[in-house]
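$ ./design --mode recover --in tokens.txt
reading tokens...
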């Protein structure tokens, strides 16, 4: 029995925890150990570090179809600038503006960050998706605590759907030429 207590205290000293006598005695007798105190939200360690540049901005790259967006976010009034123009001018369709603002809605941070994005390639829909991906990535770099809700919404995963390439012997990617019997 003393052998068990000795090995338990050795194990506890290796892990950096002090084993108390009642826990050691309970473990030695085969009884269930006392439950550990739950960790509070403040004591929970953050798995990732905050990544911010000298100007206090977080940077990320977003991609969708053929579009690539470079996105910087910093605390502000919620102004979104894309390629030097306001989001209402660049993305005239309300659905595209809705797509861009989705990460802020999920993270409960609407109107709290200014966004500056440069986007190139693809069409407007792909560019909006790329900016959304970039904003989500930058948000998690600025506030690592937001990673779980943003990831649960699926905004950190690059949407890999793209146009299928055209194959030889076909009119389009899969469509065959019209068949004529005679």
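writing sequence...
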């Amino acid at each position: 029995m003393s052998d068990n207590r000795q090995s338990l205290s050795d194990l506890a000293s290796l892990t950096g925890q002090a084993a108390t006598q009642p826990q050691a005695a309970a473990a030695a007798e085969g009884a269930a150990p006392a439950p550990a105190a739950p960790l509070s939200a403040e004591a929970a360690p953050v798995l990732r570090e905050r990544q911010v540049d000298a100007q206090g901005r977080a940077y990320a790259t977003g991609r969708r179809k053929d579009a690539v967006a470079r996105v910087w976010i910093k605390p502000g009034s919620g102004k979104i600038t894309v390629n030097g123009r306001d989001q209402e001018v660049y993305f005239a369709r309300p659905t595209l503006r809705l797509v861009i603002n989705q990460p802020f809605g999920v993270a409960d941070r609407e109107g709290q960050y200014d966004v500056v994005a440069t986007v190139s390639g693809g069409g407007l829909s792909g560019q909006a998706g790329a900016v959304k991906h970039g904003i989500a990535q930058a948000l998690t770099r600025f506030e690592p605590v937001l990673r779980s809700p943003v990831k649960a919404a699926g905004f950190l995963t690059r949407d890999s759907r793209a146009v299928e390439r055209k194959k030889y012997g076909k009119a389009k990617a899969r469509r065959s030429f019209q068949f004529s019997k005679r």
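exit 0
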